[in-house]
Request: fold
Amino acid sequence: MAFDIDMIKEVYANMAERVDKAREIVGKPLTLSEKILYSHLWDGNPTTAFKRGKDYVDFAPDRIACQDATAQMALLQFMQAGKKKVAVPTTVHCDHLIQAKSGAAKDLQSANSTSAEVFNFLESVSNKYGIGFWKPGAGIIHQVVLENYAFPGGMMIGTDSHTVNAGGLGMVAIGVGGADAVDVMAGMAWELKFPKLIGVKLTGNISGWTSAKDVILKVAGILTVKGGTGAIIEYFGEGAKNLSCTGKGTICNMGAEVGATTSTFGYDDSMERYLRATDRSDIADEANKVREYLTADEEVYANPGEYFDEIIEINLDELRPHLNGPFTPDLATPVGELGVKAKENGWPINVDWGLIGSCTNSSYEDLTRAASIAKQAITKKIKPKSDFGINPGSEQIRFTAERDGLLQIFEDLGATVFTNACGPCIGQWDRSDLKGEEKNTIVHSFNRNFSKRADGNPNTHAFVGSPEMVAAIAISGKLDFDPMNDTLINENGEEVKLDEPMGIELPIQGFEVEDAGYLAPKEDGSDVEVIVSPESERLQLLSPFVPIQPEQMKGAKLLIKAFGKCTTDHISMAGPWLRFRGHLDNIANNTLIGAVNAFNKKTNFVKSQLTGEYGGVPDVQREYKEKGIKTIVVGDHNYGEGSSREHAAMQPRHLGVAAVLVKSFARIHETNLKKQGMLALTFANESDYDLIQEDDTFNFLDLAEFAPDKPLTIEVVHADGSKDTIKANHTYNNAQIGWFNEGSALNVIKRENAA
Ligand code: MIC
Ligand code: SF4
Reply:
């Protein structure tokens, strides 16, 4: 199940040679990110110095991870590629499709029955194509990857935006859409624009109530949700060395929330300790032999301004714990200052739930720190005011935490321990305490807090914090509680104060697990049958997309002009819709239903130019599709922020949307649109967004000459007959224009394979 050590030895052997070569070519000392990138070039030895933020580069990742909600579409595409086996070690993890309701045992049983068809499909496809399969209940993809597969200096991709979590173990781990993963599974190169580099220097030391989570909550406040776009964030400095490996994982995990391509840390003692604790001493021994390659050259961290495109410095001695939110993970507020803000904004002060765990924060250290707070509620006789929910990240963590009495502490406070799965983090939460869409506040140690994300209620105000802070706030039941300064009244009427959290980095008796939940694939899976019933409402075999012709883009209609934040959750909602992730036509019925229409500020209410009537976005779009009329979607900044789900591109594509024209894109979503043969365009002049009106028709004047670095010209015809001619930029290279011309990247692979 674990990584093949010979393969890692080979990666390290290549690394030494290639990094030395790269240093020569680049002509200066190298950052860690560059070392990993240059040692994973598809063509082997480096021969060119790449321009950051400009050059497209082909890479050869060491492995791939997929989770159930994205793997279905990825594997449905891979099945079309005509290959016998995956070319690169790959795993599938069943974690998103498990609802949190009554507690682990019941919830898992019910997921196993309601999603049996999908789990069986994933298991059989995995078995057939040589993919490792992690059963439902085994854990959340990123925790399982950190425990089993991540290794310093490696490169991996995963069909989930939080794949970046593995940066905690010194990897370059990147979230991608399924179609990107399919390329690599099929034995092809993986293409990425050579990233820019942001250096974060951590000085001082974390102590007291401040935790690793607060580093990234602070960074999110500085960079905002789009500040990391197109960049790798590399953390360094004394403060970085003093963080645990899993703490580093938490920081890297939430790099997705600032749009960063990934984040990483240089190899150090904390990573060595983690590798040895997770039964991978052989990897630690190998990593120790090439230590200097697994971190930046000395000159880089001594003089970072010369090597990074941007530098952020954070003094951990001064860093205060934060709570970020609501509705966006970059709205950072130091704990203690939330009372005033909440009052000003009308956020409910009473906290109904404290949720601990998820892929972001369920390490042993996290659970011990949170438990040290929870325990005080018992010893100091404070009755917790909010409900507690716990989502362990893996069966290994759960088993170990149970053995060591940590879960019992939470259970003594009435906590519900949910399945080792995503649950409330992705709208898979059947919350019994709310009747309707009541306004309420919750705190959690997850990463995202977009509208409706936890429980489907647009009025749930979710705040993100560290597990120990979540525990403290949940005990107090007040958003404005500051455990560092405030006291609570206990059951005896006495004033009591919570002591600082105490954590244990790694279990003293080691990790333990009885059944980790892993199924190895057959050596030869050619006789394994994969069944997809034509009647299924959950799974649907794919048919190739038909190329969009330039003539069809004369007379294209506006489907929706989205106003403000439009994340992948707005474009293809999760929660109950996760059940259709393997059925393109069914899931297309949620297309853009969360996006706010700029003309009436309503969701799922757009004008059909065919009838003049208003209707839901998917319904109106289906009318256009029926008439063979192409449409376009217009959006604001950072369009497609959040998830890697390629459904957010495939659904509009399936329904006949041809172009998405926005002020700026989130990286993964832009690639996903390109892969599916659509036009992903940005306004050359941002203020042209304001020109777009509800009844607009678009004429793409020069699409027949679609070429790299050449903006497209679009004539926008308004209802009164007046016209504006605008320019749209794009980042397509020749190969990507090929995807557009052939209908999708997959069509290209199929053609090449058939040849
Ligand atoms: C998320 O955290 O938003 C998800 C759900 O894990 C997604 C993947 C998905 O939509 O299936 C992600 O982060 O990529
Ligand atoms: Fe699952 Fe939430 Fe992590 Fe996404 S962020 S992988 S939904 S736990």
The chain has a mean pLDDT of 97.
